[in-house]
Prior knowledge:
Layout: E1 8-12, H1 22-29, E2 35-38, H2 43-55, H3 63-79, E3 82-85, H4 92-106, E4 111-117, H5 125-130, E5 151-156, H6 161-168, E6 173-176, H7 183-193, H8 200-213, E7 239-243, E8 249-253, H9 263-270, E9 280-281, E10 286-288, E11 293-296, E12 302-305, E13 308-310, E14 315-335, H10 339-356, E15 366-371, E16 388-397, H11 400-410, H12 413-416, E17 421-422, E18 432-443, E19 450-456
Parallel strand pairs: 1-2, 2-3, 3-6, 4-6
Antiparallel strand pairs: 1-7, 4-19, 5-14, 7-8, 8-12, 9-10, 10-13, 11-12, 14-16, 14-17, 14-18, 15-16
Amino acid sequence: xxxxxxxxxxxxxxxxxxxxxxxxxxxxxxxxxxxxxxxxxxxxxxxxxxxxxxxxxxxxxxxxxxxxxxxxxxxxxxxxxxxxxxxxxxxxxxxxxxxxxxxxxxxxxxxxxxxxxxxxxxxxxxxxxxxxxxxxxxxxxxxxxxxxxxxxxxxxxxxxxxxxxxxxxxxxxxxxxxxxxxxxxxxxxxxxxxxxxxxxxxxxxxxxxxxxxxxxxxxxxxxxxxxxxxxxxxxxxxxxxxxxxxxxxxxxxxxxxxxxxxxxxxxxxxxxxxxxxxxxxxxxxxxxxxxxxxxxxxxxxxxxxxxxxxxxxxxxxxxxxxxxxxxxxxxxxxxxxxxxxxxxxxxxxxxxxxxxxxxxxxxxxxxxxxxxxxxxxxxxxxxxxxxxxxxxxxxxxxxxxxxxxxxxxxxxxxxxxxxxxxxxxxxxxxxxxxxxxxxxxxxxxxxxxxxxxxxxx
Length: 457
């Protein structure tokens, strides 16, 4: 039996679908690395992918991943770096086929591609409900049955175990659908260190590691409050975890890259999307964030240790997206000494004119923002009185035709409203589908995962 490693390096090169293409290349070329992870998914991303797949059965995955793979795979194969990504979205099989096409295009041989499936329960909702899974909205308590016809996508958050299984079967690339973001890191460490699923402290530490790097450069100086202190933001380094068998780890970045890794930058990311700090729930473990200790271990090196974990809950979270009607948003530039007053008057005029034509929007279905008057931090900063602002106005409604009617009326304000309106260059805003989020829980024993690994000849 091969000896267990004393150190495993994991770097995350994508924080979302649309992140910079620079990150993965930087991570695999600038320094040592064992695993390259890429996190592409968010709740709204899943619904977008589901709609793409409905139009084209070969779509529904993060296409950026394929472009990235073509850039980095030869280097990864040369250095023995494994790739783990949730790029599969709602069509992991199609994503894997696209990855195999890249492997063949590059002329590589013997590359093993693993697929993790089982998160997509869209086609099983009816039978799950019939067998007692209410999939009730966690916020409202409403049972899913009453809204079943509006569902666009439904995906269970899977954990690290199937990722570790794929790596254990020799996968060089692991493609998943909806797994929890930290599990992309937990899986490789679970595999390499040989932890059991009851090593809760180690799993908790790995989960914290995954949480710290899941948003890419948000732990190395990106989106940092004291942004002026961050050196070389153009060359911002993507984060690397140096993990040890006991669960402790160092947060760092590759040599020669920009940004900085300090207790403050790491703490800023630790607090991201954090509810109860004593019960951070994942399919792998419950983490107590109050047990975490950070210490600076030199330039761009933060040691994280002391993390404690508990057994996971008997349920997994399900991310369900719903059809929520339609919306449209348009904008105008408003200039003049009374720009803010004029912008609000213009918005009122728009809705009054629509009402004259029998098109009424409830106040809660309207959005009026006067950008430049401190609306972003309303109530925190004093109102501003600039001489030019952007009026951003929108509506939402179940009726697509009514929303389109709003878009048609907006342009008329240029000649039939106050003076000083301009900037209407993008055409009439058209109705687009609103996707609403429905969080729910499902019993763990209802979740069935499937792992397959295939070698590309």
